[in-house]
């Protein structure tokens, strides 16, 4: 396929990386996030799953190009709540053993 020239794999701590890429005005075709399963964070004064925080962060950012894809993993026993989204649409959700993989697609930013 010879996609190596067109691809860049970035590994790092998820939240600091997302914030850095946002400051740098980076945009991506695909984001694959594998946050710690069933871990709580604070989102606007409310406890939420780490995965819910990531979904909301990407939804409120310009990190994905229109038509871009966010894949996010979570413990299938504790799926992310379906929160109101502005730019992401849940396209698919599949269970693999104890893991849940969700696929979101970015629409235009409103």
Quick structural gist:
Helix content is 18%, strand content 39%. It has 110 residues and is of the alpha+beta class.
Description of the structure:
The chain is of the alpha+beta class. Helix content is 18%, strand content 39%. It contains two helices and six strands, in the order αβββαβββ. It has helices at 14-23, 50-59, and strands at 28-33, 40-43, 46-49, 64-75, 88-96, 99-106. The strands form two sheets. It has a four-stranded mixed sheet with strand order 1-4-6-5, with helices on one face. The chain is globular and about 40 Å long. The protein starts with 13 loop residues before the first helix and ends with a strand. The mean pLDDT is 85.
Query: How much helix, percentage-wise, in residues?
Result: 10-25%
| Amino-to-carboxy terminus distance | 35 Å
Low-confidence stretches: none
Order of the strands making up the biggest sheet: 1-4-6-5
**Mean pLDDT score:** 85
Q: Could you tell me the number of beta strands? A: 6
Radius of gyration: 14 Å
Tell me the structural class: alpha+beta
Helical stretch tally: 2
Q: Which labels suit this protein?
A:
110 residues, alpha+beta, four-stranded mixed β-sheet, two-stranded antiparallel sheet
